[in-house]
Amino acid sequence: MARIDPKAVLEGRVAGRPPVGLIVGLTISSVCALLALSLYALDGGPGFWAGLVLAILPIPLLVSLVLTLDRLEPEPPRMLVFSFMWGAGVAVLGALVFNTLGMLYVTVPVFGEAKAHFVSATFGAPVVEELLKGAVLFGMLWFRRNEIDGFVDGIIYAAMVGFGFAMMENVTYYARAFDQNGAEGLQAIFVLRGIIAPFSHPLFTSMTGLGVAWAATHRTHRVLAPLLGLLAAMLLHGLWNGATAFGLGGLGVVYALDFCILVALVVIVLLERRATVRRIETYLPAYAGTGLVTPADIRMLHSLHSRRAARRWARGVGGPGAARAMGDYQLAATELALLHKRAERGVADPRWFETRRDSLLSLMAVARQAFLRTPPSYAPPWAPGDPSGFMPPRA
C-alpha cells in the first residue's frame, strides 16, 4: 500500500506541500506581536517585564483547559498556533493603532477628555477589537471552510484568538498597575484578570466563532449567522467594558451573564460531542464490508475512555508506532463521520466528498495494517470475543 502522510490526510491538505499561506500569516503575526511589545516596552516603566511574565504565566493552563473540550476531533496544531498568534499580533497591533487614532481624532474632539475614555472603551474598542479578532475566523470560513466541522471548532479557534489578544492586553494592564500602585496594585489586577476572569476575550470572540461555524456547516443563513455572531461579540465586549461605570453592581451583573454564557458554551460542546458519536454509530456500519470496522470497533470509538484504552492496548502489542496508528485510525473514523454530516446538510461538494472519503478510508486501512502484519497475541479489550478489524479473521 502506498505511503500515506497521516497528518496531511487528517488536516485535508496535500502531502509534501509547504503551507505557504500559513507560514506568511505566522510571520506577519509574529512581527506584529513584536512591534506591539516594543511599543509597550517603550511606553511602559519598570512594570513591563513583570507584566509580560504574569501575562504569559497562566496561558499554558488556560489553553490546556480549552483544548480538553476538543479531544474527540482535535484541530491541527498549526492552525491553533496561527489563531493564537493572530490574536497576539495582528489583532493587538491593529487595535492599538485604530483605538489610539479613534481617541485622538474622534472621541476626544467630540466628547471631551473626561468622557472620551468611557465612550472609546464601551463603544469604540469592542467594535475595533472584535472585528480584528474575528477577521481570522472569517478568513478560515473563506479559505479553510472544510476545517470547521461544527460549533466546537468555532469555539476552539475563537478561544485561541482571544487568549492571544488577552495575553498581550494584560501586559499593559499589569505594567500600568505596577507603575501606579506597586506590587499591591499588580497583585490585585492579576487576580482579577488572570484568575477570576481569564476567559473574557475568548468568550466574546466565541460568539463570532459560533456564527462562522454555522455558516461553514449549514446551507441557510450563511451570511447572517456570522454577522449576528460578530454583533453578539461586540455587545458582550461593550457590556464588559462599560460595566465599570456602574460599580460593583454592574460588574456583578456582567460577570453573572458571562458565567451563564460560558456554561452554555460548555453544554454546546458536550451536546455536539454526543451528536458526533451518534453519527459514528450511524454512518460507519456502512463500511463494514471493507473490513475496516466491526460493531465492536464502533463501540470502541464511542467514548474518549474507550479510545484511550484502545491506544494503551495498541502500545502494549506494538509499541509507540502502533499507538500512533490507533490514534490515526480513531481520528480518521471521526473525520469520516463528520464528512457524512457535511453531506447530510448539503454543504459537501460531491467530488470533494468522494476524494476526502477515500483518503480517510486509506488512512484507516494503513493504520489497521500495522496490527495485521504482526497479529496481536491477545484480543483488544473492546472485542474480547467479537470480531475486530485489528485482529486477523478467525479460521
UniProtKB/TrEMBL annotation:
Q: Any keyword GTP-binding?
A: no
MF term (GO), any: peptidase activity
| Segments crossing the lipid bilayer | 20-42, 48-69, 81-106, 118-143, 155-175, 195-216, 223-240, 246-271
Question: Where along the sequence do coiled-coil regions lie?
Answer: none
Query: What are the alphabetically sorted keywords of the record?
Result: Membrane, Transmembrane, Transmembrane helix
In terms of InterPro entries, this protein maps to: PrsW
Protein name per UniProt: RsiW-degrading membrane proteinase PrsW (M82 family)
